[in-house]
Amino acid sequence: MRSVSFQRPLEYQLVTETEEWNQGDFIRGTLRIANNGTDPTPPQVAQVILAYALKKDLKAGAVDWQVLERVELDVPALEPQATHTSDWELHLPSESPITDKAGALHLVFGNDQAQETGGRIDLQVSLHPILESFLQTFTTQFKFLEKYHKHLDGWTEVKLVIPDSREYPQLDEVLLQLRILQEQLQIRYVFRLRSLKRDGESIKMKRKKKEVEQALDSTEYLLPGGFPNRTRMRA
Questions:
Q1: Residue 198: what pLDDT?
Q2: Beta bridge mates, 224
Q3: Total Cβ atoms within 10 A of residue 70
Q4: Secondary structure in 3-state letters for 14-72
Q5: Residue range 17-34, pLDDT digits in tens
Q6: How distant, in Å, are the alpha carbons of 38, 142, 167, 209, 216 from that of 195?
């Protein structure tokens, strides 16, 4: 991906190696700075910032950036029409927000006022591969369907649609909240249950919510060689 920002007399051009990422990946690219003015510019510092923002705030022009990581790049003095290019690298935390309808991670770039006046690129970030493998256990082994993914306060929430069968007669809804944190697979299960309860001569439907938390170390959810331990995930 490529984006250009003008902070006169300098032009900043940001280029990334790829266009899509998973949680836990590295984002790499270059930042090219060109002096389009008629006078030399002094040495300065450029920035590339990994930050999250809500789409409604971006549309309203009142962005409260949630900064995850930042890299600062030394830019030498530039003569008129001279350019300088720096390589940069940022790490997407394994529990970073995914891209959903509400918000997205961005690369914000420019001078020391980049968050206010710099350029930006919105990123397409998907689930960590281990979380994808964990969810495949539900969809392939137990025939659930994924309805949506969304970012939720440091977690990724996934709503699952119950299979059309008699195998889970008490289940109304299943919500999963997932993340990889410090190499630990952390899961919150939120089950919405229903059951029949006699009330005098009538029978009424009773609903309740049950929450279960689970944490698996990498030795549990990974096999030697780094492959997902699908047997453990099914269990």
A1: 67
A2: none
A3: 14
A4: EEECCCEEECCCEEEEEEEEEECCCCCECCEEEEEEEEEEEHHHHHHCCCCCEEEEEEE
A5: 999 999 999 999 999 999
A6: 77, 21, 14, 12, 31
